Please model this.
Amino acid sequence: MMTILKFANPILGLVIAPFLLGVINRTKAVFAGRTGQPLLQPYYDIWKLLRKGAVYSRTTSWIFRAGPVLGLAVTLTAALLMPFGGIPAAIAFKGDLILFIYLFGLMRFFTVISAMDTGSSLEGMGASREVTFSAMSEPALLIGLAAIAKCTGYISLTQMFSSVVPELWLRSGPALVLAGVALLIVFLAENCRIPVDDPNTHLELTMIHEVMALDHGGPDFGFILYSAALKMWLLGQILIGIAVPIHTGNVWLDTPAAIAGMLLLAVVVGVIESSMARLRLLHVPQLLIGATTLSVLALVLR
Amino acid sequence: MPSSNAISLYNCQAVDAGRIPVVGINEFRKFVIEAAKSGKRIASFFAVPSSPHQVRLFAVLADDNAGNLSVLSSDVSDKYPSLTPDCPQAHLFEREIAEQWDVIPQGHPWLKPVRFHHSYSTGKGNKKEGPVIPSVMVFFKVEGEEIHEVAVGPVHAGIIEPGHFRFQCFGENVLNLEISLGYQHRGVERALIGGPDKRTLHYMQTLAGDTTTGHTMAYCQLMESLSGSNVSPRAQSLRGIAMELERLANHTGDLGTLAGDIGYLPTSSFCGRIRGDFLNMTALICGNRFGRGLVIPGGVGFDVNKQHCDTLVEKLARALKDVNVAADLLWNTSSVLARFEETGVVQPEICKELGLVGVPARASGVEIDCRFNFPAGIYRFAQIPISSWHTGDVFARAYVRWLEIQRSIDFINDQVKMLPEGQIRTDIKPPSPGKFCVSLVEGWRGEICHVGMTGPDGRLSHYKIVDPSFHNWTGLAIALRNQQISDFPLCNKSFNLSYCGQDL
Model:
């Protein structure tokens, strides 16, 4: 039982993560007065892609094929470091939050080089955007987590989130709010949601993340979609870890509360996307630097 | 002033083709250049074969202030001194003439194919073999360490028509955009020669599917003028309603797609639906959402009764209310304005120099509108004020659309209330032989210009169509200079030009 519990987060992630996308889409549909696609559509899409064959351009090498697989593997590894609800992470050690952040860096590295491998000018453009923006969102994420670490006094994710309790909110509420806002911006940017990127656009000139996956098809693209959903699940857990400080000690109570928190987050994302336009690409760095500033303030304020 | 040489016409005034002065190429050149400098626009500029070794150039210049057209012609053989260096708005017309008739405009700075087809001229034994592949040409290239080239199309990510766009970029900045079209060239103008016949009207309705009523109107007015037929007041009123419904549907759709491009969901979803409502109002009148079969030579194909009128007024009121909400959301959301404002600016001087028409021109403060400057049909009796804005950016192009939506709804309401009684169609006489006529119509994109000439048998001997897109594509390329490449889709939507209307 305990071994299964140890791997609960990657398993829950694999099962529930695509559902979050379904909830976001449904929220947007409700706002637009549409029925919207089925809540389980992301699962159908991934399943469809996994059964398809893949086409590879002659200009690509093994790097292009390795990218999506490594991306998914790295995300699953990151899931092992993340506690969820009342369940501790499978692997926990001092300073694992830095590994957690850099595993996403690694995932990005593979996405970018497999995009560059195609030699397409559009994918190169997307890769350059992705790298530029992530160079600005990474400090926000790192410093934001550091601020929470400073508030709680732990630098391991498991201990850190288990000590975010209502009392901590009373003690260092302002710092947690600032860090929370900064991490929400990072969450939107890293998961290519509005106002940074538009996941619905199909215009190759404006996309950031999607344009890098233009040449991937079939199972490869399925892996990319799956790891994107997982990434959203994991980064969302940081936000939920702060905003839903429910630690009764009962796994059967804490975990459903955390899942409910994640679904609420998906609804919030849907509302944000239904009520504002996307930023001009030139203004995205300003938003991300703003997020970094909030993180720094949270760290100083604590 | 050499303009005394040119013949002056009104919109839809047929004259004997023989009365159009033929002058030497130097005088012709001087006249067109001076007219353009004095603020006239080239509405149409084309060549017609006059003898086995010669073509006759025709220039139709529109004087928006006086509301008249000057026409002049000149015979040239295989080359002539280009007008473009002194008159930039002639550039695409000269390229078209060179491609169609193998007549070289010497000194043209940008002599490239327009539609990628073989020359029509046969007299010189220069019939070319093999296919011509669109977009296979030398593109303008910027060179440098950090310059990169981005090619988009002809197959696009969205469901749009084919066109090839070549960007020269410095980072995210666009230094130059070159647009290469011609993928939808069908040879419509050539197919019209010898008409009118059963097919002619269908060609007109499908010149540009979203401008069915506009192009059909231009054709019908031309045919009625060439044959000296009259259209009943009731038919003219109904035609006006059809024109404005087409404008409403497209402008509303454009506001929606502009919102969609920046990821602003509410207006995007609203307008997509309201556009359908407007299309259905056209269907209410004639049974077709795009107005096919409504405007026909001699009048209109379908009449409306009291019940239709009541439904139309009621539906219009509801649509106005909805589109009000959708548009107000756009103008009141700061994240939307941040994207729209100062994006893709076209200066009024550039606008005049390139001879832009329609919404992009009015959005740069250039007040031209054929419904006002060259009124024909119902617009001679019911005037619609010109809607314009001064900033020349994406916001202006969106806002002018919104102003026109309100005015078109007012116009339709007035027309429905005062709909004259009487016939809806009269039988049209055959066209008179040896005539020349220009017909201008303000389609929703801008000025549509049809020029028709009849031969000695009363059949069409030449037909020239200028879709507003033909004027405006260059405007889009200029608007993109020093813009972010990621703003291209937004700029493109704000112009929303036709590919098939340009390719013909």
